[in-house]
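STRUCTURE:
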């Protein structure tokens, strides 16, 4: 039997409000509540609720023959709790059928796997606990943000105890190989790797309602024929896509829901085809060999690399600055700062700064609240500047001429040491200058003042 592995990514970021330079230090709330609620409610009504209801009816009708998997980001679930708790209840109904698998990922849909191993592990564990608390299920398969994968990232995921991981079946990774086989991590063979069949996935996710496409309008019978037409020795096909495909990317009026229902029925009716979950494929199939991915790949754009998020200097600068703050966030141990830290890590913020155009422009413009990538960068850095001010106050960070002391070196470090020693000397003199005279009030002697040319600033809590 040729099994179809159907997986959906579900994510919405907390979009940031317009934040001016003059707001820095004054306004500590960063989110566009109206826009976030508006978009979430719109997509919930067009996609999440009707598609969940359709899947629930199919799952109960076919009772084990139909299976589907999801990964729901932590910040998406946070938004549902705020604006659309009924969607969480609909996902709980799906979980209750026993034929839905929830995958792990980073809580914030972040690029933590590229920045900090410690933060990566922390976010994955935080997300796992969220899934367990809401749905009573413990994920055993991992899906990284935007299907980002490399040999070293896979090794980290295996060490966290996951049996399998999803990624993109990119041409530059596979070469002549097929995505319709199971592979394993080249460093740690215990981790199985499932690859997305991007051609068949994108036929639904991006081309379904494109009137200029040679296959439009796509019929479920035609698509089922394509699935059956893959080579006989290929036992499964991995169809991975955004859940927003069903009603949002592909509008309700396109007939996308009817297509999905008819396709499921055709696959189950045909004795040659069926459905399987990612964990089932990892358990039931042997790896055909190692998959070598020395440099990170993803499912984004034509290049299938990291250029959508870290392809220009603005993105790299914002990402570097954000990641440099982790130790301070841990030191501050403040719930509000930790929340903002997580939300600011969402990969969407860096995606909005992308200067890639032409073939991928329409994708980058989707749900983008900014007029240009430069507006996105300036807005983000203004917010990050305010966040740093709050963080330094809470963590009692010492700053010398605007530079954190742990980042000082060379002459700047020597100057800071000399000035700090000068201040200590003044303080010691001041302490010794107050002498008590028997039977009288203390006599306060005059004391030298600290040098005025340089100052060592310490933010007060």
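SEQUENCE:
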């Amino acid at each position: 039997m040729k099994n179809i592995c159907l997986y959906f990514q579900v994510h919405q970021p907390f979009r940031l409000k317009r934040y001016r330079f003059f707001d820095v230090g004054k306004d500590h709330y960063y989110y566009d509540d109206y826009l976030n609620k508006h978009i979430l409610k719109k997509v919930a009504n067009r996609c999440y609720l009707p598609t969940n209801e359709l899947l629930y009816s199919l799952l109960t009708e076919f009772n084990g023959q139909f299976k589907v998997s999801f990964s729901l980001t932590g910040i998406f679930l946070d938004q549902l709790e705020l604006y659309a708790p009924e969607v969480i209840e609909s996902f709980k109904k799906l979980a209750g059928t026993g034929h839905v698998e929830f995958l792990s990922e980073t809580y914030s849909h972040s690029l933590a796997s590229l920045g900090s191993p410690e933060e990566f592990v922390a976010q994955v564990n935080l997300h796992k606990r969220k899934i367990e608390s809401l749905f009573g299920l413990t994920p055993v398969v991992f899906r990284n943000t935007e299907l980002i994968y490399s040999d070293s990232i896979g090794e980290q995921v295996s060490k966290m105890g996951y049996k399998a991981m999803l990624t993109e079946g990119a041409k530059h990774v596979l070469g002549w190989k097929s995505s319709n086989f199971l592979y394993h991590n080249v460093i740690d063979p215990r981790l199985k790797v499932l690859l997305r069949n991007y051609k068949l996935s994108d036929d639904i996710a991006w081309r379904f309602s494109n009137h200029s496409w040679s296959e439009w309008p796509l019929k479920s019978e035609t698509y089922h024929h394509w699935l059956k037409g893959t080579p006989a020795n290929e036992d499964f096909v991995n169809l991975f896509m955004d859940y927003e495909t069903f009603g949002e990317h592909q509008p309700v009026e396109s007939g996308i829901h009817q297509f999905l229902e008819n396709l499921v029925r055709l696959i189950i009716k045909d004795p040659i085809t069926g459905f399987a979950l990612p964990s089932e494929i990892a358990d039931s199939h042997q790896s055909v060999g190692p998959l070598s991915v020395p440099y990170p790949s993803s499912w984004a754009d034509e290049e299938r690399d990291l250029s959508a998020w870290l392809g220009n200097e603005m993105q790299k600068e914002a990402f570097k600055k954000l990641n440099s703050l982790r130790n301070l966030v841990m030191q501050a141990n403040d719930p509000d700062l930790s929340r903002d830290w997580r939300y600011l890590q969402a990969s969407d913020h860096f995606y909005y700064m992308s200067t890639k155009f032409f073939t991928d422009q329409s994708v980058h413009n989707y749900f983008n609240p900014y007029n240009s990538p430069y507006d996105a960068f300036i807005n983000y850095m203004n917010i990050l500047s305010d966040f740093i001010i709050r963080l330094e106050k809470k963590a009692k960070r010492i700053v010398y001429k605007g530079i954190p002391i742990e980042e000082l070196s060379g002459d700047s470090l020597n100057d800071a040491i000399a000035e700090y020693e000068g201040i200590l000397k003044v303080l010691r003199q001041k302490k010794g200058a107050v002498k008590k005279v028997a039977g009288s009030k203390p006599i306060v002697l005059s004391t030298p003042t600290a040098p005025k040319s340089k100052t060592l600033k310490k933010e007060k809590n």
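REMARK: The CA atoms of residues 377 and 407 lie 24 Å apart.
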